[in-house]
Structures are given as structure tokens and as C-alpha cells.
């Protein structure tokens, strides 16, 4: 029988970076139409890093009753609408989402792809009649929790096992890319990441069918993404 001990769920790590310090969206965008394109993965990532590489494992997990994509879109929409400065469009068209799936911030975009990315964003902006396009995406980040060589993707559960000592955290990361809907130029960019330590006893191999832990992950991730998304909107100057 499994024994779950939720000893603490306090966000102890919150980090982020932006293209410039205290980015502010120009007042020239007052009254702008903002399209939100949410490309977050619908599944969480579970990562196990053991004492040796032979113990390492990774899996994708569905989180029943937790719609992370809808949540983050709603948070961004509400944050913008309450300012009274923007008209917001939530993009759900699968064709547009498919075309925008590879759009990334300038740091991660190869120089030879920048021109074509601008053209794509401009085309989508014109199609949506949007002055600004905000792309919400997963982040592939280094292990900012335990300092291993693991690459953390999006959001999920990270278990570090070393010589019989186990540490577990639920983590989330996202990036918001603000693009000019007319020119396709990047206006601003910020990435955020957070981790919450968790004390629990679970079987990694059975995690996919462990509804109790899946529900816990879902609840914690939702809280983390609310915090990250709200902070990202503030950093970008949408106020």
C-alpha cells in the first residue's frame, strides 16, 4: 500500500529572464488587438534521474481534469482585458496553431530562419487583424532544481535519486513571446520557471495510472502556471 506524505508544497525556486530589464509595451499599442497563440504541451513530463544513466527514465503524462492550455490562455486574456487597453482574441484555429508551432524567441531562432518567421507572423497577424501576437510556449531549460545534466521540458514531475536518497519536485516553465502582428518583429520576450518540493512515495513505473499523484501534479502545476503567467504579463508591461 502506498503511503503519501505531502510534507510541504511551497514554491522555493522562481526564476526568469527577459529581453531587457523592466520591459514596457509602448503606449502606441493602446487599443491594440492582441491574439493569444498558446502552444503549451497538453501533457506533463515525468523525469527520473538515478545514480547511473541506466536508471534514468522519462515519460509523458496526461493530467485528468486539469486543462493547462485553457488555464494559461484564460489568465493572459483576463490580465490584458482588465487593463481596458486591449481587445483580446484567443486563437483556437488548428490550422493557425499548426503554422505557428515552430515560432520561437530570437535567442532560439537560427539567423537563417528569422526572415521566414517574420513573414509567417505577419501573415497570421493580417489574417487575424491582430496588432500584437502573444505566443505562449514550453521552455526547454537546464536543471535549475538539482543541478544535474537533465533538460527539463515544460511542466511536470522531476525525481532525483542518488544512492537511495530521493528528492522530488513539481516544476513548471513557460515563455511569452510578444510579436508585432504587422511586421512580424519581436517586441519583447520573457521566460519564467518555478519548482515546488514534494515529499511523497510513489512508483515511477506506475505513475501513469496513479490518479492521486496525477491529480496532485495537476493542482500544483496550475498554481505554478498562474503565478508564472501573471508575473510574465507584468514583466512585459501589459498594465
From TrEMBL:
Name used for this protein in its record: Curli production assembly/transport component CsgG
Amino acid at each position: 500500500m502506498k503511503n503519501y506524505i505531502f510534507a510541504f508544497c511551497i514554491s522555493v525556486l522562481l526564476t526568469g529572464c527577459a529581453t531587457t530589464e523592466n520591459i514596457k509595451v509602448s503606449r502606441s499599442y493602446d487599443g491594440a488587438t492582441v491574439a493569444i497563440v498558446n502552444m503549451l504541451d497538453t501533457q506533463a513530463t515525468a523525469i527520473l534521474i538515478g545514480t547511473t544513466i541506466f536508471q534514468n527514465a522519462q515519460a509523458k503524462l496526461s493530467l485528468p481534469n486539469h486543462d493547462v492550455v485553457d488555464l494559461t490562455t484564460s489568465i493572459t486574456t483576463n490580465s490584458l482585458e482588465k487593463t481596458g487597453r486591449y481587445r483580446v482574441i484567443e486563437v483556437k484555429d488548428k490550422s493557425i496553431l499548426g503554422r505557428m508551432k515552430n515560432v520561437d524567441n530570437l535567442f532560439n531562432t537560427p539567423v537563417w530562419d528569422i526572415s521566414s518567421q517574420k513573414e509567417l507572423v505577419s501573415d497570421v497577424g493580417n489574417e487575424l487583424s491582430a496588432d500584437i501576437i502573444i505566443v505562449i510556449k514550453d521552455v526547454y531549460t537546464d536543471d535549475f532544481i538539482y543541478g544535474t545534466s537533465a533538460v527539463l521540458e515544460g511542466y511536470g514531475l522531476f525525481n532525483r535519486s542518488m544512492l537511495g536518497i530521493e528528492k522530488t519536485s513539481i516544476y513548471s516553465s513557460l515563455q511569452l513571446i510578444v510579436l508585432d502582428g504587422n511586421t512580424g518583429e519581436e517586441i519583447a520576450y520573457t521566460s519564467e520557471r518555478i519548482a515546488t518540493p514534494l515529499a511523497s512515495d510513489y512508483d515511477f513505473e506506475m505513475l501513469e495510472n496513479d490518479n492521486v499523484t496525477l491529480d496532485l501534479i495537476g493542482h500544483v502545476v496550475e498554481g505554478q502556471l498562474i503565478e508564472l503567467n501573471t508575473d510574465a504579463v507584468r514583466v512585459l508591461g501589459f498594465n
